[in-house]
Specification:
Layout (H helix, E strand, L loop, with lengths): L4 E5 L8 H10 L4 E7 L11 H8 L6 E6 L7 H6 L4 E5 L6 H10 L3 E6 L17 E5 L15 H14 L4 E5 L7 H7 L3 E4 L1 H4 L5 H18 L1
Parallel strand pairs: 1-2, 1-8, 2-3, 3-4, 4-5, 5-6, 6-7, 7-8
Helix pairs in contact: 5-6, 6-8
The structure holds D-xylitol-5-phosphate.
């Protein structure tokens, strides 16, 4: 596993050529794909269903993770595992029974991640860290790509990273929202080791190969300063 992983957010891929976009992300060296699943309730947007992920699974060799920005995701877990996602990330704010939902993901044979909106403290997940291998610190308010990065989240990224280190847990800190070469050094310096990027990958001038390379170079700068 690389020191810092680049995760291509499918939200920013051209939906009219999704297969080709995922192929380009793979050739660019992205480590995995994140599917931004939105239900129009937890966030004011609506995106992919399991059938789109399952179709993409037929043409991409990259690992898939689903970022479930949906209310009460418990009923959807099996569908996204069956569609080919090896990790499911649910929001702490969207689950009345978060511990139970995370345990259910493990029972389905998938890896579990938990996401925190900008206003949600790290303490909201301190009692479920034994059930996850990833904590996603949102660096925008979820719902749309292309938003401005919230630098105020760097303190929270550091808090999450310290908590994981103190507990001696193998948990990756992932960040999502406005991640670009300009913002990557700061999140990596704070402790992020997985960078979710849509605009900076699929919207990069020169395409994903240029975008992924620029993110990796920026991440290296952050590691030097970490
Ligand atoms: C949250 C979404 C976006 C997306 C990345 O609404 O999860 O953060 O993946 O968006 P960019 O990289 O375009 O800011």
């Amino acid at each position: 596993m690389r020191a810092v992983e680049v995760v291509a957010s499918a939200l920013a891929a051209d939906p009219t050529r999704l297969g080709l976009e995922l192929e380009a992300a793979e050739h660019a060296g992205a480590d995995r794909v994140q599917w931004d699943i939105m239900d129009g309730h937890f966030v004011p947007n609506f995106t992919f269903g399991p059938h789109v992920v399952a179709a993409a699974r037929q043409v991409s060799r990259l690992p898939f993770e689903a970022h479930l920005m949906v209310e009460e995701p418990g009923e959807l877990l099996g569908a996204f595992v069956d569609a080919g996602c090896e990790r499911l990330i649910v929001h702490a704010e969207a689950c009345r029974q978060l511990h139970r939902v995370l345990g259910r993901i493990g029972e389905l044979g998938a890896k579990a991640g938990v996401a925190l909106n900008p206003a949600t403290p790290v303490s909201a997940v301190r009692h479920v860290l034994d059930l996850v291998d990833l904590v996603l610190v949102m660096t925008v308010n979820p719902g749309f790509g292309g938003q401005s990065y919230l630098s105020s989240m760097e303190e929270k990224i550091g808090e999450a990273a310290r908590l994981v280190t103190e507990r001696g847990l193998e948990i990756q800190i992932e960040v999502d929202g406005g991640i670009a070469p300009e913002t990557a050094p700061g999140v990596v310096r704070s402790g992020a080791r997985a960078l979710v990027a849509g605009t900076a990958v699929f919207g990069a001038a020169g395409g994903p190969a240029v975008g992924v390379r620029a993110l990796r170079e920026a991440a290296r700068k952050g590691l030097v300063g970490a």
